[in-house]
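Sequence in, structure out.
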Amino acid sequence: MEKLEKNLQYTFKDKSLLANALSHSSYANESGEGISSNERLEFLGDSVLSLVVSDYLYKHYDTPEGELTKLRAALVCEASLYDFAKQLELSEFILLGKGERNYKGGERPSILADAFEAVLAAIYLDGGIEPARKLVLRFVKEDLLHTEKISFKDYKTKLQEVIQKNPEEKLEYVLIKESGPDHDKEFTVEIRLNSNVIGSGVGRSKKSAEQAAACEALQLMGL
């Protein structure tokens, strides 16, 4: 318990919640001691995870709803949760039935991803939304550095293709505002076509702000 709590950077007041979060259904079924599986916690954890990620993306990414949905999906998919669980070394602590242990169930992505959600729910029930948010964002912020590169459509290229049909037109991206501390910057960019503003966007990086601005410009053009 102590080692896992250290990995989680959270100390439980009610240790039974953590024990429940680590109890796979195969273990609960074999124990015959009235032990509950972590499936109910997994259900709750899925919602907590979605809320925390949705809240963060809404506040930090000024992009269309469809793109936010795609980005959230990439962040909370099984592969991502499996990676989070591996970083926490959850496979060392999951309680499995004999059959699952024999088939190395503790290494299965689905089991580890579910365990991460269950542990997240246990933290939420034990300490509220803030420690749960802290755990999620510890991984998600790092993941966003890589995920946003492949999740967002390349609106800048699409806009450039449209503008190039008229060679005399000049397109320019201008950084008009930069705010926030170094670890939590926010950038605002305008797109100017022949000095006229045709779109603006906000993002956690200059590139994401430029993409958001290009998206707005395309929307205004009906594209």
